[in-house]
Amino acid sequence: MIPLYWFLVLSAILFCIGLYAVITRRNTIAILMGIELMLNAANINLIAFWRYLYAGSNLDGVIFALIVFAAAAAEVAVGLGLILSAYRSKETIVANDLDTLKG
Amino acid sequence: MTTMQLIFLITAAVTIFAGVMMVSVRKLLHAALWLILVFFGVAVIFGLLEASFLVIIQIVLYIGAIAILIVFAIMLTQNAIDDTYQTSRRWLVTAVVAVIALAGILLALFTWPQGQALTSTLAGGQQDIAAIGLALLDPEGYLIPFEIASILLLAALIGGIYVGIEHKGEEK
Amino acid sequence: MLQEWLYLAIFLAISLFIPAAAIGAAALLSPKKPSTLKNSIYECGIETVGPARIQFKAQYYLYAILFLIFDVETVFLFPFAVAYNQLLFFAVIEVILFVFVLAGGLAYAWRRGALEWS
Amino acid sequence: MIFIADPITFITTWLNSVLTGWGIPAIWVQFIMFILGAGLLALGAMIFTIGLIWLERKLGGRVQDRLGPNRVGPWGIFQTIADMLKIFTKELITPVGADKFLYNLAPLLAMAAVLGLWAVIPLSPTVFGTNINVGVLYLIGIGSIGELGIIMAGLSSNNKYALLGGFRAVASLLSYEVPMAITLLIPVMLAGSMGLNDIASAQKVAFIFQAPVAALVFFIAAIAENGRAPFDLMEADSEIVAGFNIEYSGLKFGMYYVADFLHAFTSAMIFATLFLGGWNGPGAEQYPALGFLYLLIKTALVYLLTVTIRFTVPRLRIDQMMAFAWKYLTPLALASLLVTAVVDKAAPAGQGLLRVALLIGANIVLFLIADRLVTLYRKQHEKARKVVSDDRPVPVAIRSTVVEEPEVNS
After folding, report:
1. Pick from B49, D58, C19, D136: nearest CA to A11
2. DSSP assignment of D30-43, as one string?
3. D159: nearest CB among C8, C42, C87
4. Widest CA span of chain B, in angstroms?
5. Of A69, A70, A81, which is closest to C65 when you measure between CB atoms?
6. Which member of B85, D60, D167, D213 lies 3.0 to 4.6 Å from D336 by CB, making a disulfide possible if both were Cys?
7. What CATH superfamily is the domain C2-112?
């Protein structure tokens, strides 16, 4: 059967790809996409640990992943809304150019 | 090597490839489509972990809703940025940082004493979704996270609409 | 459990393969005589003006947000629906609370005019 | 096992024993059976569509007082086959500037999103693709793959109208998916499972009698999900020429066409399974083949209704369509969910008929309240509209003087 650490390695690689996207990309939407990738990697970790250590006894991992789904949805909704709002007032969505706090 | 392991390896390879393409491709729209492939790969991984409810949620929520929202946002802001202006010049430094982080995680993982020994045989049955429902609504279980999730979603809905709606009269 | 998913995967692969095979066969059977005019973009008979990238209304985005939030809500309610027969009345009250909080969001969107197609 | 009672299971068992007899390992036998079953089901569904298209065109013709196809063969029955031969040999045009890969992938996804639904529909008590325990959510997930196909078609065609049509289509599909997903909760709740075969077998009393409002909402949302009249905004010929599939030709367009017709029938089948009891009927348990017949009859009734609606009702405006989804169907679906949950829990246990009566009563009250609210809302808005339109000239029909014909003695 598949050893646990295979899943963990996959999750680590995906997480680092997401991290790379978050740091290098200048477009805020692309940064958000990187964050989604990182959340997915975290979910793999949660489910893998749940499956291998606690599957018989409780549902912590699954519920945790469910809440992560809800948080990801909330984050995308508000994050993209902010990006659109910034685009409307500034005509740009490049992260470096959005450096003033006033609207 | 069993069939399961083979399926895992293929899925992992495809997922990682799609992830790399997502961060390296120039057009943002194509990056979003690669991201959808990553989501799909993660869904298959959930399937291998016998979490059928999460497989279908991954498809319904991530591919069906979040990815579509991202594509909408890209289309709405597409005049803002031209395709050649995507990555910053420090990409090499960042790549090194990311690889070092990965190496650190992997090192921690492989030096973890019980890590490699943990394997699990598959139960073979279907995931019990009623158990999730019972646990979610159990006051001694996860009722508080369940209700807080509703408030989180409400806040996201109100926030998203408040910032997303075009305020009349504030147009320049 | 994996048997069911294997069946679904095979089914989806086949349902992708059948139309692909049909289109492939049609591509072999059909004539291929491309011309500049034939391959040009259709725009009601006149020549195409400007690029195909057009600006969209923010309205689409508002609907997508509403959809996303309600989709998450429905997904949270599905385990409740499956477990419904084993639950007590108290659980139904909890779900009513859950739904009412989100219905408040819908009411807010309604009042803000986010549901109007302007 | 008797052949007549359950032919499919009979053949499967026979084939299974033959393959095992050849010395093929059990896992591979199952794999082969999966491929055979899935392939035959998908292929059967596609070939079935040929008849379906003829049927719908003929019915549509009759509804609109036309003849419908009547040239090729008796009653024009071979019309679709002629059409198919033609479309097979049409040139496949790829427009300039199109994103080749996505452009070619989109029709496949559109077709797969419809065929994939057949994997979970129980055709008879014993014949179903798989009774997976997330079957209902699978229906929603497959729907979202269809949306993905539409977005891809719109984006890759390099055409303004395709892009506009694609986004309109996706926005309306998203909007109607919300009430649809909420009403899907109700059969799940009443049956206590998400597997479609479990839901079908739980319906000793069809769920339409326990949740008529939910059934109505689901029916309307399903029509909208199919993109059929009166919700055919995405193909509004006069507004956005043909929507997202405008740049497709030959069989690639044909795939959208076939998917459209098959989707309508499949939706009717899902409705029959979720709310009309699926294969349930007298004697269906003993003779599964009879169950298939019941399912077909129920599906045909629902399908006939959708076809009649398609050919009689005019198209809605897009603002009306969106308002209908969000301001009427979604609140109604939420209310129906809560009412069903409360009444079903509060009803005394063990009394089947009383419970059903209570549920029907609650649903009728709910529907009347909703109707009343809509009337009030409309009155309010009509007042507002009158104020706006005061200054405009209002066309008044001039009543022509009717010349009375002299009575003729008969």
Report:
1. B49
2. HHHHHHHHHHHHHH
3. C42
4. 66
5. A81
6. D213
7. NADH:ubiquinone/plastoquinone oxidoreductase, chain 3 (1.20.58.1610)
pLDDT for D183: 92
Q: How far apart are CA A102 and CA A95, in angstroms?
A: 15
The candidate with the shortest Cα–Cα distance to A5, out of B13, B19, B108, B58, is: B108
**pTM to 2 decimals?**
0.89
Distance CA D331, CA D369 (A): 12
User: B with C: how many residue pairs have Cβ under 8 Å apart?
Assistant: 143
Check whether domain A26-94 has CATH 1.10.287.3510, yes or no: yes
Residue D99: domain span? 95-382
Residue D244: enclosing H or E segment and its boundaries? Answer: none
- Closest residue in chain D to residue B51, using alpha carbons only: D134
Identify which of B79, B39, B44 has the alpha carbon closest to the alpha carbon of residue A76.
Answer: B39
**Residue A38, both tokens:** 């990182």
* pLDDT tens profile A7-36: 888 999 999 899 888 888 878 888 899 999
Amino acid making up residue D106: A
Q: Give the phi and the psi of residue D6 in degrees, each rounded to 5.
A: -150, 75
Neighbouring-strand partners of residue D122: D128
Enumerate residues 6+ apart whose C-beta is below 8 A from D342.
C92, C96
Whether residue A76 lies within 8 A of chain C, CB to CB, comes out as yes
* DSSP-assigned beta bridge partners for residue B87: A25
Please give chain C's pLDDT, 118 residues, in tens: 567 788 888 888 888 888 888 888 888 887 877 777 777 776 666 666 666 556 667 788 888 888 999 999 999 999 999 988 888 888 888 899 999 998 898 999 888 887 777 6
Average model confidence (pLDDT) across chain D = 82
Please tell me if residue D249 touches chain C, with a CB cutoff of 8 Å: no
Q: Test B65 with D144 for CB contact under 8 angstroms.
A: yes
Helix (H, G, I), strand (E, B) or coil at A95: helix
Residue pair B82/B97 in contact (Cβ under 8 Å)? The answer is: no
A81 touches C: beta carbon within 8 Å: yes
Distance CA D321, CA D158 (A): 27
Structurally, chain D folds into a number of domains equal to: 2
Length of chain C: 118
Alpha-carbon torsion (C76, C79, C84, C89), positive or negative: negative
Give the separation between CA D85 and CA B54, rounded to whole angstroms: 44
Q: How far apart are CA D282 and CA A1, in angstroms?
A: 47
Inter-CA distances, C85 with C76, D184, D274, D344, D386, Å: 17, 16, 18, 9, 51
